[in-house]
Design goal:
Shape: globular
Strand content: over 45%
Order of helices and strands: HEEEEEEEEE
Oligomer: single chain
Distance between the termini: 41 Å
Helix content: 10-25%
Radius of gyration: 20 Å
Largest sheet: 9 strands, antiparallel
Amino acid sequence: MTALVRTQRMIAAFGGVVAVVLTLTGCTPQISSPVGTWRAVGEDTGTLTVHEDGTFVMHGASFNPLGYVDADDFAGVGTWDTYPDDPEVVLRFSQAASDGFRVEPASLSRAFASGVIRFTDPDETVGIEFRIEDSAE
């Protein structure tokens, strides 16, 4: 009985140490696919929906990721890809509009494995952050 109690205590202590290490190092569970619904956080607005069929839709976004400027209503559609040796998702916008005006399509690569996708201007003074809300995993 004593050996069982010791084993349980050791397992509990190990679990506690792992939890503390993960908290202190900022480690979060990593996702392997961008498929799902991503919502803007904070004061930002918008939704990015990444579909299993290789397409995506962004709508109602408060930032234009193709023009690197704030927006009242950015929307875009396109296709996406990931590659085994690259931890980023490539979003290829085929159509986009910002505040009712057409925006020239472009491709962007962004990290996603942490459950966060960020778009910013080159100086990182304005931008938008999406967090996964409904993952396909």
